[in-house]
Amino acid sequence: MEMAFEIGVSTLLVIGGALGLIGSYGLIKLPDLMTRLHAPTKTTTLGVGAVLIASMLWFAGRHGQINFHELLISIFLFLTAPLTANFIAKAHLHRTGGYADLPPPGDGAVWAGQQPPEDEQVDEPAILPEEGVGDAL
Amino acid sequence: MFLSRLVPHPFLTLLLTFVWMMLMNSVSAGAAAFGLFLGLVVPFLTQSYWPDRPRIHRPLKIVEYILVVLYDIVTANITVARIVLFVPRARLQPAWVVIPLELRSPEAITVLAGSITLTPGTLTAEVSSDAHSILVHCLHAPEPDAVRDEIKQRYERRLLEIFP
């Protein structure tokens, strides 16, 4: 029984580690930023999930205490992983001018990042330098 | 009226209480009391950022949705691992897919975008200016139309039942 329990926990740890390794290998192997972005968002879900389940099982079986921290960690990861991926994707589109190559959304709309900023007016500095100041620079 | 000003988001209050108790890892009265205090103060102080209460039509469907997404995360992780390991770079076919949305509530679109990113192989990158479609990047999609149909069938149909 004890043996089976330990094998179960170890299997989960190995699965988690293997997925992390494959995700990191994906970062090297995949050709460009957008495809590379797939690797880290994936390993955080299942790879970290497997390690957290292993941790929960271990402490529940060994010390008879149920930890909720693992559950919270996975919930916070699930909330934050898509956001960071989305931010990186948008920054990438802006930096490379990739918006031109995207398929159009239809209905005459544009992608949100293609819209001109709402307030294009640049705030005037409150104190303008006098005429001639700074010309020497 | 007074009560709804004081407790603008009852569900958020409950959620914060539970999260605090889980953080403390105890079910004692003290943890519950302080959690409830936070659950009352935080929504009250931040209520100007949450003007609307999200309307949820069929709460039990949320459980089904979470189970479907979790199942998909596991199976699709294996698919992506196989793509990374065995598909050579030259044969990889990344694709941009436009998904027209029937969902209109912002919360529902956020949940859909999040689940698309969490399920491996697909990643939400953008939303259109009228919020009527989202842009998804696929790691390896020989048939982009099939991806679009699957996302609409599996996730959006279920979310439409939850968020009217």
TrEMBL record, chain A:
The chain crosses the membrane at residues 6-28, 40-59, 71-89. Residues 104-137 are annotated as: Disordered. The keyword Calcium does not apply. Keywords: Membrane, Transmembrane, Transmembrane helix. InterPro entries: PhaG_MnhG_YufB. It comes from the Bacteria. One of its GO terms (molecular function) is sodium:proton antiporter activity. Pfam families: PhaG_MnhG_YufB (PF03334). This is Multisubunit potassium/proton antiporter, PhaG subunit. The lineage of its organism: Bacteria, Pseudomonadati, Pseudomonadota, Alphaproteobacteria, Rhodobacterales. The gene is phaG.
Automatic annotation (TrEMBL), chain B:
The chain crosses the membrane at residues 12-45, 65-85. It is a multi-pass membrane protein. Its main location: membrane. One of its GO terms (molecular function) is monoatomic cation transmembrane transporter activity. The keyword Transmembrane applies. It is found in: Cell membrane. Keywords: Cell membrane, Membrane, Transmembrane, Transmembrane helix. InterPro entries: Cation_antiport_E. One of its GO terms (cellular component) is plasma membrane. Belongs to the CPA3 antiporters (TC 2.A.63) subunit E family. This is Multisubunit potassium/proton antiporter, PhaE subunit. It comes from Allgaiera indica.
